[in-house]
Amino acid sequence: MKIAVPREIKNNEYRVAITPAGVHELTTRGHDVFVETNAGAGSSIPDEDFLAAGAKVLPTAEEVWGEGQLVLKVKEPIAEEYPRLRRDQVLFTYLHLAASAELTDAMLKSGVTGIAYETVQTANGALPLLAPMSEVAGRLAPQVGAYSLMRPSGGRGVLPGGVPGVHPARVVVIGGGVAGLNAARVALGMGANVELLDTNVDKLREIDRDFHGQIRTVTSNRYSVEQAVRAADLVIGAVLIPGAKAPKLVSNHLVSEMKPGSVLVDIAIDQGGCFADSRPTTHDDPTYRVHNSVFYCVANMPGAVPNTSTHALTNVTLPYVLRIAEQGWQQACRADDALAGGLNTHDGKLVNEPVAEAHGLTSTPISSVLA
Question: Is 96 a catalytic residue?
């Protein structure tokens, strides 16, 4: 199979969809891999490393997309890339279609087969291709939150860990999944007073046990969220409903009641954000103010640490890439229910129900597409 790896062009997106190790696995099995020149530069992977692994390096995005039967990316296509989508092509990447009607429309009009990393889901509910980036974003969230809390950044001027005789920052994490748990772990390591809210009491028990009570766990409901947010110095939103838009858990009015200079970091911004006032920002201009609080809503947080993120992503995507390349996407999806869950679009049809609900569209049963 011909596999294309274009350079990412989203603002400050430095990751690349495959490592030289991944290229080597594919080329030694007889597949052709086409990588756009400098695709790996932001991740400190030079073209020479891809060439040595067996890839063909091409100078333009048009050439790379044109070669690909299977296109591997990190982030969803942006408007400049829409014309490159083709009906006879499989696109394997993070799509986050529920958050973008424009991209959904472009995918359907092109007829491309879109398989989304973030909706590949195993029988036990795990999201194996989202997990590593959730780990990265979760671990970054307290770092960017701490920076934003500094007075020159517009924050309260609070040190997360405090000092002897001075209270540490109060950090509230909403959501106890992979991202939220990693955020809580790092915030605790910084010495902050950490409270984690989730609707799953069994999960809260597990966190309480694993952290020996050092992270306070609270059942998430409207009242407990309001109480926690009002008292917080830093709020980290890490709520996820696979494939669907994130629920809005922090209202504009609630933000108006927060401490002046408090910070809100929305990890869920890729899925529309879990704060009412969230809107996507970039690494160039990551924050904005709402009332007296600072919002950080960068939609590609792991892009700030691309070397780590690229290797972590390839570790989990490569087994699925190999299956698609060797079996074809339909047979690979028939043989693996987890991968089938990643199928979002095919031949102008939307086959992901939460995405269809988000945009008021009709979804096609996946069984009919794979028949």
Answer: yes
